[in-house]
Every structure is written in structure tokens, then in C-alpha cells.
Amino acid sequence: MYSNIGNQFINISDDMYNQRIDNFLIKILKNIPKSIIYKNIRIGKIKINNKKILPKYKLNINDILYIPNIYINKIIKKKSNLNINKIKFLKNIILFEDKYILAINKPTGIAVHGGSGINYGIIENLRFIYKKIKFLELVHRIDKDTSGILLIAKKKYVLQNLHKQLREQTIQKEYLALVKGNSQEKKYLYIKSFLLKNFSNKKNKVIVHDTKGKFSITKYKIIKNYKNTMLVKIIPLTGRTHQIRVHMAYVGHPIVYDQRYGDNEFNIQLKNNINLQRLFLHAYKINFIHPITNKNINLCAPLDELLIQYLATLKKITHD
């Protein structure tokens, strides 16, 4: 499948096009710990066209990928952290599956893919389960602490089609969030701003800026008011990093237990009052056109029992 030159170079062909370099290396260097792969990308030993690259670099046709001898000569058997219970657990969170697409209800606290400090994410564990499937890639990402719907493509052309739908904004995602504050507004409200990645602040990775960054739009609607909080439906019309969390904080309604952009004092109060100890942000619904059947696919991931319990406790507190 791959054109190797002296066991050190790979000439990127069209079947490898547009894959992230880190994901590509993880797939072909199956016995190499991910920490070593990321380290050698970071220090520049792994190169594209004789240049240092970032893990998020996407491969282009005719790129020349250089892999140093350390990977070829030092094969270290990696240990899977999967067991039978985890396999059963992952299969129990499947919402939809056919030959082309897999959709799961991702739990909170699990990263969608491995990276710095994380050996295994959802996608690595799914690849372990679906060993016979050669292609298994994330269609989109949600934050580690966010729960809800996650789409995975089983074919490259399916991934490309769904990415096209994302670019054209024909895929609609709907989130549920518990936020600070109250409002009696009945109609949809819109948040529009530029979002800029903030490399000078390790905590707030993304900030609102007047003119710089990527223009972003989020709309939301109040579903129910509770004591000092409200449940809202959120529809991101663009897909920027941390967009929902930054935008809700920007309009004075930070998502509860958001330890990056939220109100820390308020989070402590909620922890003491209802024992809330997770980000209350859930990817609730998604709507897209199936790339093969052209059917309209509507998926819904119900809130987990813990979030339902939090809302029940808030309802009781509100009416007391």
C-alpha cells in the first residue's frame, strides 16, 4: 500500500491524502507507543518534505514523509488498556451503525483521540474492537469533558462527504447545557464574534476578539429556568474550538462546571448543593444526509442518568 524508499521514506499517495500526520503514523506504526510518535514529531525527527511539522498537519499528495530509524529498529510492544468490560461498554454506547458510519454516545471524561498525556482515546479503542475495518476516522470532535453524539466514518469517501456537509453547514448539531443565570426570553438568541486562539494563556485557550480570529455564530434558546441556572438548547452555526463554552461565558451565561471558561465560585456552590462534578454540556442531536443512501439521518443521544439526576435535584430546590 505504501511506497517506501530505503525503509525511511513514504511517498504520500491519494489514499493517504488529507489525513492528520499523527493519526496516519499511529495507524502504520502499530507497535510504537504514541508518546514516542508525538515526541519525534515535536522535536522534528519526523519530517514532511524535509521540514518540521505539527501533529495536526494534513497530508498532501506527493508529500515525502521521513521516518527515522528509531521507529524501524526499536519496536516496542504496546499494551492495550482494553478488557472485555470496556469492549462491552463501547458497544453499548452505539447509537447507529451501518457499513459506512458509526455513531456513539460518548461519555464525559473520555478524549476522542489520544494525544499528549493520553495514550488511548475513543477512536483508538474502537479501532481495537473493529480490527477488520481498515478505515475508521473521526468525522468531528467534541471536548473530553463533553458527552454526546460522535460520528465516525468507515470509508474515506464517506468521511470526505461528511466533511463537505460540515463545511457547507448542512449538518446541524444540537447541544443541551446547564448555564449560570436566568432569563424569560422565549425566542432564539444569537451570539456573533471573532474567536482567537490564545497561546499566551494556558487556561483560556480561546478568547473573543473584536477583529482577529475566525468569525463564529452560536444560537441558543432557553428551555427551562431553575434556581440561578437554566437549561438551554444550543446550536453552533460554525464549528470553532471551544466555541459554545466561550460564547456562553461571553454573554454572561457560562456553562456550569466549566473549569476553563466558567465561574469557579459558582461551580463550587453547585458542587456543594447538588454534587455537580462534571461539565454540563451534552451533544444531544445531529442531523445529516447519509452519503450513500441520501436519506436524512436524525440521531438523538439521551442525557445520562447523572445529568437527569442533577436536573431533578435542581427542580426540587427551585420549588422548595
Secondary structure layout plus pairing:
Blueprint: E1 3-5, E2 9-11, H1 21-28, H2 34-42, E3 47-48, E4 51-52, E5 64-66, H3 69-73, H4 84-92, E6 94-97, E7 101-106, H5 122-129, E8 137-138, E9 147-153, H6 156-167, E10 172-180, E11 189-197, E12 206-209, E13 214-226, E14 229-236, H7 243-250, H8 264-274, E15 281-289, E16 296-300, H9 305-319
Parallel strand pairs: 9-15
Antiparallel strand pairs: 1-2, 2-5, 3-4, 3-5, 6-7, 7-9, 8-9, 10-14, 10-15, 11-12, 11-13, 13-14, 15-16
Quick structural overview:
This protein is α+β, with helices and mostly antiparallel strands. Helix content is 27%, strand content 28%. It contains nine helices and 16 strands.
Provide key terms for this protein:
about 325 residues; Structural Genomics Hypothetical 15.5 Kd Protein In mrcA-pckA Intergenic Region, Chain A; Pseudouridine synthase; 3 domains; eleven-stranded mixed sheet; 9 helices; disordered N terminus
Low-confidence stretches: 1-7, 71-80
Largest sheet: 11 strands, mixed
Under CATH, the homologous superfamily of the largest domain reads Pseudouridine synthase
Fill in the CATH topology of the largest domain. Answer: Pseudouridine synthase
* Total number of distinct structural domains: 3
| CATH uppermost class of the largest domain | Alpha Beta
Overall morphology = globular
In round numbers, the mean pLDDT is: 87
Percent of sequence in beta strands: 25-35%
| SSE topology string | EEHHEEEHHEEHEEHEEEEEHHEEH
Proportion in helices: 25-40%
User: What does the radius of gyration come to?
Assistant: 21 Å
- Which structural class matches the secondary elements? alpha+beta
Please work out how many helical segments DSSP would assign.
9
Cα separation of the termini: 66 Å
Write down how many β-strands occur, each being a DSSP E stretch of 2 or more residues: 16
Question: What is the CATH architecture assignment of the largest domain?
Answer: 2-Layer Sandwich
